[in-house]
Amino acid sequence: MTITKRIVSAALACALAASTTSAQNRAAPEVLPKASQAFSDARIGRTYKDSTPGTLAITQAPAGAPNVLVILIDDSGFGQWGTFGGQVPTPNLDRLAKTGLRYTRFHTTALCSPTRAALLTGRNHHSVGTGVITEMGDGYPGYSGQIPKNAAMFAEVLRQGGYSTAFIGKNHNIADWETSISGPFDRWPSLQGFDYFYGFVGGEMDQWQPVLYRGTTPVSMEVPKGREGSYTLNDSLADDTIRYIHQQKSVTPDRPFFVYYAPGATHAPHHVPKEWIDKFKGQFDQGWDKYREETYQRQLKLGVIPPETKLTPRPKEIPAWDSLSPDQQRVAARLMEVFAAYTAQTDHEVGRILDALDEVGQLHNTLVVAQLGDNGASMEGTLSGAFNELATLQGIPEDTAFLLKHIDELGSAKASNHIPVGWAWAVNAPFQWGKQVASHFGGTRNPLVISWPDRIKDAGGIRTQFHHVIDLSPTILEAAHLAQPVEVNGVKQKPIEGVSMNYSFDGPKAAGTRRVQYFEMMGNRALYKDGWIAVARHGRLAWVTMGGSTGDFDHDTWELYDLANDFSEANDVAARYPKKLKELQDAFWVEAKKYNVLPLDDRFAERGDPSLRPSLIAGRTDFTYFSGATRIPEPSAANTKNTSHTITATIESPQGGADGVLVAEGGAAGGYTLYIQDGKPVFEYNYMAHERYKVVGSEAVAPGPARIRVDFKYDGGGIGKGGNVTLFINDKKVGEGRIEKSVPSRFGAESFDVGMDNGSPVSESYQAPFAYTGTVRKVEIHLAPSTLGASDRQKVRTAQHKAAMAIE
């Protein structure tokens, strides 16, 4: 039977499938903003002498409404945190769990942007246009990459309900083409319900020299004096959260706050100070197979998995630890030490925030929701791990010898490291697979801790009801005594698709209220219904970076698990219960049609095609950037890759000369920079921190006006090839050189800058921002027509897709 016929058949058979509409939606309809009552008691005469002013009221939150702190950790496995059996001690999460509840059957979407969209809106990820990450949006309603206005975030409901609201950390729900100064900004936090935003835009960020925003204004991370070399973004985001809590409670001690704290840890790059790494030296020499067995035993002892749970076996595609050479084991163990250190540091920062709540006397009156992962641990680090994940995910290899050469730099500003697949699988124990794989719990089952001492009395309890990330929004609104509105800011709202979890606070044995839940990500899919789950892992392995089979939807192998007796999806009973499998397969098509999952799309390289999305640069070959043009996102800047091009900087050099960056794109993980040092122009190309090519001018730039030009003649013959560089001052050749290899797709998450190099520095010859001390009048870039053939363009799309996944 074809997919189309299945959809029709399923729709007829399952038209009355169980609804997941929250009880909140059955409350009295509410429209936001509420009708103003201002001036209703005013008496207006001819002058103020015979008039009486009305009352101007401040919106008050409902009585008993708690503060709300949502903590969202990134790329985190079920068996990663000590609180859920992992080897890394997490005392602050333990502390939170001891005052609250641990949820062991909580689920995400298997990928970053989709989970965040689902969390903040209370709707399924396809239902709010986020079937994949924002960088891969296209023209289908479930995949636009843009959260629609008819799915307002619960932050807006809280804000209009009397809360102060703040978003601190990672925002990965703004489309690529809406991240520049040209906007629009209506999908930025300040227009989605948050009074305050401090953080970064995109999927990942350099922890040492991040590119940040306060509101919509670019800012730099301020490093406290004496903390140079040990202060990272993890520290800064926690400091800002603490500062916000202190200020908000100082000004309005009786007004509740909502803080959404999403630090971006533990997503790659795994950057963490050396003093944290040193704490874990030698602790992972046992390898991933043994780690997984040890974690399983700890999980049984803690009671976070049932006694009858089986530890699922290692997939044949992942090598056994004992099959690795001593050098491979050394590198893999070190990468895991860094990842563990990153996890421990993150737990420490969470503890500092809890201390701040305690300090202001609000810990007991704060609903803390700690979600440990927007998906399972990432399997995107290749089988051997990565020094620079952005390189390996674009098909640029790193062998063991290369990794050994850089082993002491892992975790530092020079690296963008990522753990091997084997470690990601291990910390997803006891489940199968990991991030991207929405069919299995390794990708979708994440630990959840909820603490609210004033309300939750079963301190330290465990809850086993099946729930999904869309259930957090109605849970928080119910706790705040606020109804989900039917209209927000003039837009009729889609019903909330989540269900409240508040019933579980007092009912450890209460029947779960989530009866049905679908899962889908890039063709991997599943359907949960009343204690059973049918799953189909589809096509490409998560760590296959270039190409890879996409599979056949009509011939996927479906598995069936009886979750009432099989916590870890270890025993496939599809052959024993074919009718049950068919029931759930049919139900999947009903849910898929209802929530905009269709059309199923497993394309890989094609989805990286920029023509599928709006673009600020499509079709342009000539670009002019003026003084002050900085922090331009890479997708909105001139794309100089895989073609010949010229870069011309028109400058004014003062008497005595001037040094600094004229133009730069990218950062320490890869990019290019044209700068003046010791009076001489320099063009440097950073090939993904693997190789660096530098052309230094033979003459200094004289005082007065000058034009510094770089001509790059691309070799052609495919993508990522080399080329010849010629450097000019006022049309006089002053240097030439050779770039043997070039980056095929994206340099990373950093920006294009005129007159400085924001974020991490492209070159190791200067410290960012190394602003030019003369005047940059303008920078002009001309791109020659592309000579790439159809197959080459396909390879570019593949590389763009993987780079987007890395930046995710």
TrEMBL record:
Protein name stated in the entry: Arylsulfatase
Annotated Gene3D superfamilies: 3.30.1120.10, Alkaline Phosphatase, subunit A (3.40.720.10)
Enzyme class: hydrolase
GO molecular function: hydrolase activity
Taxonomic path: Bacteria, Pseudomonadati, Pseudomonadota, Betaproteobacteria, Burkholderiales
Annotated signal peptide: 1-23
Chain ranges of the Sulfatase N-terminal domain: 66-481
Enzyme Commission numbers on file: 3.1.6.-
Family: Belongs to the sulfatase family.
Keywords in alphabetical order: Calcium, Hydrolase, Metal-binding, Signal
CDD domains recorded: PAS_like
Superkingdom of the source species: Bacteria
